[in-house]
Amino acid sequence: MKPVIEMKNIVKNYQVGTVVVHALRGIDLKIFEGEFVAIMGASGSGKSTLMNLIGCLDTASSGDYLLDDLNVNSLTKDEYADIRNQKIGFVFQGFNLLPRTTALENVELPLLYDRHERIKNPRQQAIKALESVRLADRIHHVPNQLSGGQQQRVAVARALVNNPAIILADEPTGNLDSRTSIDVMSVFQKLNDQGKTIILVTHEPDIARFAKRTIKLQDGKITEDREITVPKKASEVLATMQGDEDEME
Amino acid sequence: MKWNRIQKIAFKSILKNKMRSILTSLGIIIGVCSVIVMVAVGQGSQARIEEQINSLGTNLLMVFPSHSRMGGVSRGAGSFNMMKLSDCDKILQQATHVMYVSPVIRSGGQIIGGTGNWSTSIYGVSTQYLAIKDWDLANGNFFTEKDIKAKKKVAVLGQTIVDQLFPDSDPVGQKIRIRNTPFIVIGVLAKKGQSGMGQDQDDVILAPSTTVLYRLKGGDRIDMIYVSATSINEMDLAQTEVEEILRKEHKIDYGEDDDFMVRTQTEITEMASATSKTLTLLLGAIAGVSLIVGGIGIMNIMLVSVTERTREIGIRLSIGARSKDVLTQFLAESITLSLIGGLLGILLAVGISLFMNKFTEINTVINPTIVLMSVLFAGAVGVFFGYYPARKAANLNPIDALRYE
Ligand SMILES: Nc1ncnc2c1ncn2[C@@H]1O[C@H](COP(=O)(O)OP(=O)(O)O)[C@@H](O)[C@H]1O
Ligand SMILES: [Mg+2]
């Protein structure tokens, strides 16, 4: 089996004034289709930097990055934008939804920037994506009418609406309480069960245990990489917790 | 990316921020509106002046007494007037390029007759006056050469006088008193309506030149002479002839200044419209400045909105928008705003000018060229002042944009 993501000796340096910050000091990483990877590590260890590189939001200082066998280093700015649009769905810690814009329009947005117009009916597709995150009844709500968990689920719907190869999430539960966090994790698990490759960043071990594989970063280097043979099921954990689901959000 | 999708995104963004959009457009609305209205007012007054001068008559030359006589020594109004009734006869006899001649002796005063009294102007003119002015009679007759010779006390009334003094009866044959001198009404002028300047052209009485001069006004000086050239092409020749005849008649030696001046209708039109053209230009320029200020307003708001919307730009870039998409979106937004502003400005301007025409004395003429130009200008303002902020937005790095607080 071929890896979806293959990184070879990836280095990322930031120049801040006269100081050079070594955010990543040589990352070798392979991630295969259908994996559910949690990237862990202390604050400042380089997790977000790595995610931004994987997500083609930024370019590495050196090293090779193959995404779906495509060498990403040699691409133009526009080709980068197209990869972000078609191969990657990104979920952020701060949701990053457009304000004053309905959930439906937010989810539709990536389809509007698809210059190949692969999906003929963007509206229908957006509704389907929202249904899959259990927000069918909230499609006309704007972000500030939604709870944090619901906003993050809208963001997940937006990330998957284009049928990307991978879904990336940088601390998606960082702004959510523990119960809502588990709820969002259950959405990711469901997507993973459907075959989507998922990579998420978290510093909470409680969240990481829902993944199938954890990678530890320390000072810009991978220090640990292991499989979780029996990941926890978020939906089961959720069932054991009391309280009304939507009231908590 | 397809243009209509970008346009849709831009439109949505405009509608999402109604207040900001309105404020942005306001500068353009006011700018375009004031350019159109100002120019319309200027051209309206120009049109009025031209219309009024044209209504004076056809192929018209006007001879006035002149101030500059006797080596520049002015002797006060009236005292320099050397024009007499005999000048008219001389012109008519000797000039070959002249068709009609009429003196004008202005007088005025109280008229009593019929059912009441009325105050108006009385013009002493020749029998050719109607032909010069291209006026018609509605009723009765005009006076004849015989009446003029006999200084007959006959009068031809304008419609306004008829309405005032004889609302229910036929005035022809009736008696009226002009400043206590009895006159017989022999005719009524056809209705002409208001002149370009809003003057009532029907509020007038015509009488034989001699009668007005000797029986009403006194003295022997006439106020002006109307001369109608045989054709529009012969106006220059007619003017030279008239000047030669009058110089001989007034015994003005070679090198001496004339005691009269001849003005053609076109000269007068040009003089008057030159003034109002300058006015139009000035008004237009002032309004143009406000249009530019409006454009700078758009740039200001677009710049602020780029900063304010940095996160939005980051989100769009992160889900796959190309720089060009963002550039196009921002440009489309600013062009749309300025075009909408331009259209609203036109509507407002049309409304204001209709209102002015209907409810005020100010006459306005909307110039389609100016309308077209201001729309194009509004669009150009959108491109010009929208480009810098749009480029700034498009060149942002997605991560930096997303991290922006
Ligand atoms: N844009 C940037 N400019 C300079 N330094 C940066 C930038 N982004 C991240 N860094 C630095 O790189 C290191 C890794 O940061 P980051 O990837 O955000 O860590 P994490 O997400 O694990 O908390 C940190 O030392 C951080 O200060
Ligand atoms: Mg981070």
Taking all Cα atoms into account, the compactness measure Rg of chain A is: 18 Å
Structurally, the number of domains of chain A stands at 1
Q: Mean pLDDT across all residues of chain B, rounded? A: 85
The unique ligands bound to this protein are: adenosine-5'-diphosphate, magnesium ion
Indicate the overall shape of chain A: globular
The first-level CATH class of chain A is given as: Alpha Beta
Please, how many helices of chain B? 13
Query: How far is the N terminus from the C terminus of chain A?
Result: 40 Å
Low-pLDDT ranges of chain A = none
Number of domains of chain B: 2
**Number of continuous helical runs of chain A:** 9
CATH architecture of chain A: 3-Layer(aba) Sandwich
Provide an overview of this structure.
The complex is a heterodimer of chains A (249) and B (405). Chain A has 249 residues and is α/β, with parallel strands linked by helices. Chain A has one domain: Rossmann fold (3-Layer(aba) Sandwich). Chain A has nine helices and ten strands. Chain A has helices at 47-54, 77-86, 103-112, 122-132, 148-160, 178-193, 205-208, 234-240, 245-248; strands spanning 3-16, 19-32, 36-41, 62-67, 70-71, 88-91, 166-170, 197-201, 213-218, 221-227. In chain A, a hairpin with a 2-residue loop joins strand 1 (3-16) and strand 2. The termini of chain A are far apart. The mean pLDDT of chain A is 92. Chain B is an alpha+beta fold and 405 residues long. Chain B folds into two domains: 3-52 and 273-403, no CATH class; 81-258, no CATH class. Helix content of chain B is 56%, strand content 17%. Chain B has helices at 3-16, 18-54, 85-94, 129-133, 145-149, 159-165, 209-217, 235-249, 265-308, 310-318, 323-359, 368-394, 398-403, and strands spanning 60-65, 98-113, 116-125, 137-140, 154-157, 175-178, 181-189, 204-208, 224-229, 260-264. Chain B has a six-stranded mixed barrel. In chain B, strand 6 (175-178) and strand 7 form a beta hairpin. The longest helix of chain B is centred in the C-terminal third of the chain and has 44 residues, at 265-308. The radius of gyration of chain B is 33 Å and the shape is elongated. Residues 69-78 of chain B have low confidence and may be disordered. Classes of the chains: A alpha/beta (249), B alpha+beta (405). The A-B interface holds A 52, 55, 57-58, 77-78, 81-86, 90, 92, 96-101, 105, 109-110, 112-115, 117, 158, 162 and B 1-2, 5, 8-9, 12, 16-17, 311-312, 314-325, 397-399, 402. Adenosine-5'-diphosphate binds at residues 14, 16, 21, 23, 41, 43-49 of chain A.
